[in-house]
Design goal:
There is one protein chain. The chain contains 14 helices and 25 strands. By secondary structure, the chain is α/β, with parallel strands linked by helices. The strands form four sheets. Strands 1, 2, 7, 8, 9, 10, 16 and 17 form an eight-stranded mixed beta sheet that branches. Strands 5-4-12-13-14-11-15-18 form an eight-stranded mixed beta sheet, with helices on both faces. Helix 12 links the parallel strand 21 and strand 22. Helix 1 packs parallel to helix 7. The longest helix is centred in the middle third of the chain and has 25 residues. It is globular. The N and C termini lie far apart (54 Å).
């Protein structure tokens, strides 16, 4: 009888795809003992995600892997929508870099996964258990037990404080929890075809809203190209993958279909579904395990990476003793509505793309061309302002007054311009914020406004203090501001932070590890901000003593690739 192997971890992650590997990289950076589990031993090589937005790149920046991702990426790729007549009726080419990166970027998922897995080699406290399939899950008030079967059928049990289910749309974790996936499955299937000898000079993503057969054409890195064709009722999905049928689909779209080196062809069914809950006891669901959406908005993986970045710091805060476990409930509170909105956007773009009635298609084209005459509408489309942006009105945020003002920046992602460090380097803001919480003062040093009790709280939390000074004017380039405390001093190179703070009700911002604004206050209000945030992270018990786990804090390591 084969002995059962036993493993222990603070956090176990089931699924080593981009979402699971992102959580593992963050937890590794936070010093959390982590076990990454996947049923496969290799990275899956068939067509999957290809679009990466600025928020997602910022998440990878947080684990020191943004530049590695960019090496395998085409940046700032435009999106063109073509009407029934073959003419472009919408050209989406956002030029904003408000979060530090281009908004539309094209990549290949298998290369990104390899980068993420290589990134894990930096962390001895993160182990991978590949070729192991989850067969059962149990949890109680103290731990989660995962029952696994290894490559040769050998049993294994993982004991973990918490578990992240990142095992995709057919999630075994979700199934074992009994969490339903609510929503719809779309009736139309799509054939996805990729070649590695791109014959076209079309450096953009094209949504071809052709009623004869709607299709998508994408320019990919390394001379790859992808097509996605809608199948009609009565067309046999498997038959459409035969070489002669693939060439037939491509006829009229490339000079010579027979000359293409087709490396893969696969049929997909699209879903618009949301898990009934993202958190069940000590287990949370991220990525496709929590939500599924059609690919038209290019937001499936991006939404999952937002999940991963949100839950990773909260798990780290709990297992290192910096927050009460109840803050994990804010993962569902914060992420659910945004995921739902992103599914809605994907459905809406699908409705624009897919009409097969010529009259409806031409009416759509005329309507869009008319709408884009108005500058405000044109800018809304061209700059991708239609993309839902997360805004957390509840969760790990402190709002001033109720109801929450619509223009409040609290609960939104903070901008990321370049700043100049004390040694004269121009870097993106996150490089000076550190891996954890940051108190950032504009034109003021937040440290000098903290009373001893507040300073002690922020120090225990592991907070980075940052002072941002006005752009240089009349100061010589060698004359650099310094702080009388341990706050990091940086210069607001182009005034972007000056303008951002001018729109806020205070000059001190509390920025979370996932770069969302947790609170903003005037210097004189830092006392109440400190007290309220301490209560938010670590509520007192009825006896007035803090939860025992708060007494022993595990130090957080420095960020990978960060700047101090």
């Amino acid at each position: 009888m084969t002995a059962t192997s036993e493993y222990r971890a603070q956090v176990a992650i089931v699924g080593a795809g981009p979402c699971g590997a992102t959580v593992a990289n963050y937890l590794g950076g936070y010093g959390v003992r982590t076990l990454l589990i996947d049923r496969s031993t290799d990275i899956i090589d068939y067509p999957r995600a290809v679009g990466m937005d600025d928020e997602c790149l910022r998440s990878f920046q947080g684990v020191g892997l943004a530049e590695e991702m960019l090496a395998d990426m085409i940046q700032n790729v435009s999106l063109k929508m073509f009407g029934a007549d073959g003419h472009c009726f919408a050209h989406i080419r956002p030029d904003t870099r408000e979060f530090g990166w281009s908004r539309r970027n094209i990549f290949m998922q298998q290369l990104a996964e390899r980068t993420l897995r290589t990134g894990l080699e930096r962390y001895p406290q993160v182990r991978s258990l590949l070729g192991h399939e989850l067969t059962d899950l149990e949890q109680d008030g103290t731990e989660v037990r995962l029952h696994l079967t290894g490559p040769d059928g050998e049993p294994a049990v993982v004991h973990a404080d918490y578990v992240v289910g990142a095992d995709g749309g057919r999630s075994t974790v979700r199934e074992l929890l009994g969490v339903p996936l609510v929503g719809d499955t779309h009736p139309r299937k799509w054939v996805v075809i990729e070649c590695d000898n791109d014959p076209l000079d079309a450096p953009y993503t094209g949504l071809h809203c052709d009623p004869r057969r709607p299709y998508v054409c994408l320019d990919l890195p390394y001379n790859y190209r992808r097509w996605e064709f809608m199948l009609f009722p009565g067309e046999d999905a498997e038959a459409m993958l035969r070489p002669e049928k693939v060439r037939e689909l491509l006829t009229g779209h490339v000079p010579d279909p027979a000359a293409l080196n087709i490396i893969r062809a696969r049929v997909y069914t699209h879903h618009s579904r949301l898990a009934a809950r993202f958190l069940d006891g000590r287990v949370c669901l991220v990525g496709d395990a929590a939500h599924l959406m059609p690919p038209w908005a290019g937001q499936g993986m991006n939404t999952g990476i937002r999940d991963a970045t949100n839950i990773a710091w909260k798990l780290a805060a709990v297992v290192t003793g910096r927050a009460h476990p109840r803050i994990l409930s804010t993962y569902d509170t914060e992420r659910r509505e945004h995921a739902k909105a992103t599914v809605g956007l994907s459905d809406a773009l699908g409705r624009i793309l897919s009409p097969t009635n010529t009259w409806i298609a031409r009416t759509r084209d005329t309507l869009f061309r008319g709408l884009t005459v108005a500058p405000s509408v044109r800018d809304w489309i061209l700059q991708m302002r239609f993309k839902p942006m997360p805004r957390y009105t509840r969760g790990v945020v402190l709002h001033r007054g109720q109801p929450v003002p619509k223009d409040s920046a609290v609960g939104r992602m903070v901008i990321q311009p370049k700043v100049e460090t004390s040694d004269g380097r121009a870097v993106l803001l996150d490089e000076v914020l550190g891996p954890w919480f940051a108190l950032v003062g504009y034109g003021t040093d937040p440290v000098v406004h903290l009373d001893p009790a507040s300073r002690a709280f922020w120090d225990r939390l592991g907070t980075r203090y940052v002072t941002v000074v006005e752009p240089r004017s009349g100061r010589s380039r060698t004359e650099r501001p310094v702080s009388g405390t341990d706050a990091v001093v940086v210069e607001d190179i182009d005034g972007a932070l000056r303008d951002w703070f001018a729109a806020q009700p205070g000059t001190v911002a509390l920025i979370r590890p996932d770069r969302y604004l947790a609170a903003v206050a005037r210097p004189a209000e830092l006392g109440w901000l400190s007290d309220d945030f301490e209560r938010l992270l670590a509520p007192r018990t009825d006896t007035g003593t803090r939860d025992p786990q708060q007494r022993h804090l595990t130090p957080l390591p420095a960020a990978a690739g960060g700047t101090s």
